[in-house]
């Protein structure tokens, strides 16, 4: 049995001597990093789910072309879910002699269930308010485009069908606009109680019914399982994953980066603990020899030291986790731009997960070195000797790697990423060992190299074991840091490329062929930047290889949104911007988007059949494209070969960037081309840009924690050889070596060690980033040449400076005193 008072006295003595401080700080910062990452991951998942729900107007939405069954509402009520209904239809709206086709949505209170309507009571937006209620009976709210086309003001009366309504506000923002953006006409919100008096809706009228539902996820899933067998092709179920593709794609990238950050934090934690416990075991060999002389058993000694490290690790982990939670308000404030009105719930799950991770990593990586102490003999008190425990150490390292791989998969949920990172780390270790034994041994014997530099190679080759540990420790830490930093740089630059200051913020649709020349002339006169103009034909995918899609895909048909509606089919001579050919030959048949091809299970040579009006058009897939949905430019799932769809009625689409101060241009455009529909995506664009900016700050915080841990690991690598370096320095001084020459020799060894660790780390990080960027994040990998040549030199200089600082602090300062 251990005497607790003696145990704590020994622990306090070890802490005061500084033996445990670096291990504690390494674990503290590592666990703070892991805890912050866990918290951040949960926050982003929660916040983005809430944001998606606000864009949707509810947690779930069912859109139907037919009246919804009453028993469905009864089922939702029995589950305790909140509900609201809306009905949308097209109707002519008139004011005086002005007419305009508009999309009218009749809503009830509350609407929406998530988020809110933003309404202005004045043309200049000086009186803006938010609402979750329908307009009062007899009043309507209109989109700003109708004010121009109908020439109305706030308070004027317009006619819809047989009823007149007072215009009471301008719709600035409306959640719940899901589905096909390119079918959105100028819209109006009215009270559901006013539908009947318009007499617009008759038997056979084209109406879209929307059912908004919010509640607990498990209850919503129960409702969906109840509804799914009853849904048909005219009904679509939307959830938070059915929102904007740009947000969804970049959210998945961010979460993938956070997962990689967690994985790299585990690497940092493992290396830090391994280096710290190595130094701890080296410094306590004489102490263990004394204890063995007094009759202490191996079991007693190992238990004593392991409990000391376990107690310290638990304390450091708890403090690190607390720091991660202290930082949570800061993370929330950075993510507030995503959903301002939503408060993330407090959760202890990240704390328990981080603590368990910390203890497992601590045990796996410290036990390997602590097992060496059991082989210390009492005779070691009379002579210094290095203890060996090759069998135990090998088993310990294997256990540590298996445990690390398991934890890595737990966090990333990707065996491919885990395998790539683990294999790269193993390759790094083997390369260090092999190159040290071969390369540095040859350099040490090269007479052409100056003696001062050659002495550095000789020192490294003479202490290959310690040098290998030092380079491996520093190199793996640098690999983790560089992997995070390089990916962060690529992510942020990709976001900036996707959303430049002049990113398109308006779509123009329903353009007629004869309007293209005057429209292009108008845009040119006003120096408006626009994308290419593409034709569009509406068609529904109904066959795959001459068989109905329902027969080919079965129940999976209901899960593919592209099969539940008509698609916008187009064609073009050249491959569109933001499209990349990944397979096949361009413009010899049908070109399909990569993700849709994967979901449909089709490939080059398969045949697709589309119903366009009352005809069926078929064609073979000749190419597969990868689209950049984040560009907010016109993108198409399906592109035909030019000429195939020429006989069908078509309209045209383009997109443009319009500065906020040029909004009057839209008024003149709508007056000149009243049939053209202008879709404003500026609000969505700003929200996406806010997400990117705020998550970028959070990613920078992750890098900061990693940097702190990396600095500690580098210091530990230097301290691991401080004892032998102290003896070597005193010996060289005794032999008469001058201080300047001694300084040069120490600097050369540190320089070569740092340069080599930096070079291998950059190469390994580039290999990891190449795989992750291309296969996980969907980014175009750019070779970071400046890092390849610059980082090794920076690391070498930093290693020299840190080596001198450690040397001075460890023994030169004491010698001077």
TrEMBL record:
The keyword Cell membrane applies. It holds the Pfam family FtsX. It is a multi-pass membrane protein. This is ABC3 transporter permease C-terminal domain-containing protein. It comes from the Bacteria. PANTHER family: INNER MEMBRANE PROTEIN (PTHR30287:SF1), MEMBRANE COMPONENT OF PREDICTED ABC SUPERFAMILY METABOLITE UPTAKE TRANSPORTER (PTHR30287). Residues 262-378, 701-801 form the ABC3 transporter permease C-terminal domain. InterPro entries: ABC3_permease_C, Membrane_comp_ABC_pdt. One of its GO terms (cellular component) is plasma membrane. It is found in: Cell membrane. Its main location: membrane. Keywords: Cell membrane, Membrane, Transmembrane, Transmembrane helix. The chain crosses the membrane at residues 255-280, 301-327, 347-371, 392-411, 417-443, 464-487, 698-719, 750-773, 785-806.
């Amino acid at each position: 049995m251990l005497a607790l008072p003696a145990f704590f006295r020994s622990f306090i003595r070890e802490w005061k001597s500084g033996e445990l401080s670096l291990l504690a700080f390494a674990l503290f910062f590592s666990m703070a990093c892991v805890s912050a990452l866990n918290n951040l991951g949960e926050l982003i998942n929660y916040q983005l789910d809430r944001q998606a729900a606000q864009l949707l107007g509810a947690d779930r939405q069912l859109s139907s072309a037919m009246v919804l069954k009453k028993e469905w509402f009864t089922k939702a009520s029995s589950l305790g879910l909140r509900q609201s209904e809306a009905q949308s239809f097209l109707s002519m709206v008139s004011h005086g002699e002005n007419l305009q086709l508009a999309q009218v949505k009749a809503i009830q209170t509350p609407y929406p269930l998530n988020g809110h309507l933003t309404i202005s009571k004045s043309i200049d937006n000086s009186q803006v308010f938010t609402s979750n209620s329908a307009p009062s009976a007899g009043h309507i709210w209109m989109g700003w485009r109708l004010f121009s086309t109908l020439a109305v003001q706030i308070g004027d009366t317009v006619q819809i069908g047989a009823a007149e309504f007072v215009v009471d506000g301008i719709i600035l923002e409306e959640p719940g606009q899901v589905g096909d953006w390119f079918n959105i006409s100028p819209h109006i919100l009215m009270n559901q109680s006013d539908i009947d008096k318009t007499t617009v809706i008759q038997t056979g009228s084209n109406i879209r019914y929307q059912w908004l539902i919010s509640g607990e996820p498990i209850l919503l899933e129960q409702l969906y399982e109840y509804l799914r067998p009853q849904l048909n092709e005219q009904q679509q179920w939307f959830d938070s994953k059915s929102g904007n593709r740009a947000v969804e794609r970049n959210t998945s990238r961010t979460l993938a980066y956070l997962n990689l950050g967690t994985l790299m934090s585990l690497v940092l934690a493992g290396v830090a603990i391994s280096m710290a416990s190595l130094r701890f075991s080296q410094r306590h060999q004489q102490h263990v020899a004394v204890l063995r002389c007094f009759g202490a058993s191996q079991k007693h000694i190992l238990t004593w030291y392991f409990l000391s490290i376990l107690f310290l690790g638990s304390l450091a982990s708890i403090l690190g986790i607390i720091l991660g939670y202290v930082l949570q308000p800061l993370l929330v404030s950075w993510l507030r731009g995503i959903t301002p009105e939503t408060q993330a719930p407090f959760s202890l799950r990240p704390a328990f997960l981080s603590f368990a991770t910390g203890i497992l990593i601590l045990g796996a990586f410290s036990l390997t070195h602590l097992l060496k102490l059991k082989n210390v003999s009492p005779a070691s008190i009379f002579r210094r000797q290095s203890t060996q425990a090759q069998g135990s150490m090998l088993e310990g390292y294997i256990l540590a790697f298996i445990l690390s791989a398991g934890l890595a998969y737990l966090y990333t949920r990707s065996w491919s990423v885990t395998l790539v990172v683990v294999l790269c780390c193993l390759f790094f270790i083997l390369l260090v060992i092999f190159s040290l034994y071969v390369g540095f041994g040859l350099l040490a014997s090269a007479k052409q190299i100056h003696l001062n530099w050659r002495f550095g190679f000789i020192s490294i080759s003479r202490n290959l074991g310690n040098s290998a540990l030092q380079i491996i420790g520093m190199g793996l830490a640098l690999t983790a840091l560089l992997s995070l930093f390089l990916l962060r740089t690529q992510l942020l630059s990709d976001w900036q490329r996707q959303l430049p200051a002049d990113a398109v913020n308006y779509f123009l649709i329903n353009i007629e062929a004869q309007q293209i020349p005057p429209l292009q002339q108008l845009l040119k006169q006003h120096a408006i930047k626009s994308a290419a103009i593409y034709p569009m034909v509406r068609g529904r995918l109904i066959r795959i290889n001459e068989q109905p899609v329902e027969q080919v895909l079965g129940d999976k048909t209901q899960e593919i949104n592209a099969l539940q509606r008509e698609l916008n089919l187009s064609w073009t001579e050249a491959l569109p911007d933001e499209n990349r050919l990944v397979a096949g030959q361009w413009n010899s048949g049908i070109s399909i988007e990569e993700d849709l091809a994967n979901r449909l299970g089709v490939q080059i040579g398969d045949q697709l059949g589309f119903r366009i009006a009352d005809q069926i058009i078929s064609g073979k897939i000749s190419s597969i494209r990868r689209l950049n949905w984040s560009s907010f430019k016109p993108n198409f799932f399906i592109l035909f070969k030019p000429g195939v769809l020429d006989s069908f009625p078509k309209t045209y689409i383009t997109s443009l960037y319009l500065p906020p101060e040029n909004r009057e241009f839209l008024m003149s455009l709508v007056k000149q081309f009243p049939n053209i529909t202008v879709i404003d995506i500026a609000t969505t664009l700003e929200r996406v840009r806010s997400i990117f900016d705020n998550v970028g700050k959070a990613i920078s915080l992750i890098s900061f924690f990693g940097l702190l841990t990396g600095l500690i690991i580098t210091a530990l690598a230097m301290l691991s050889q401080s004892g032998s370096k102290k003896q070597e320095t005193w010996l060289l001084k005794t032999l008469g070596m001058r201080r300047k020459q001694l300084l040069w020799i120490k600097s050369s060894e540190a320089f070569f060690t740092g340069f080599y660790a930096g070079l291998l780390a950059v190469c390994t990080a580039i290999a990891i980033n190449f795989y992750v960027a291309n296969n996980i994040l969907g980014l175009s990998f750019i070779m970071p040449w400046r890092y390849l040549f610059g980082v090794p030199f920076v690391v070498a200089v930093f290693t020299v400076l840190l080596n001198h600082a450690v040397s001075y602090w460890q023994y030169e300062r004491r010698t001077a005193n």
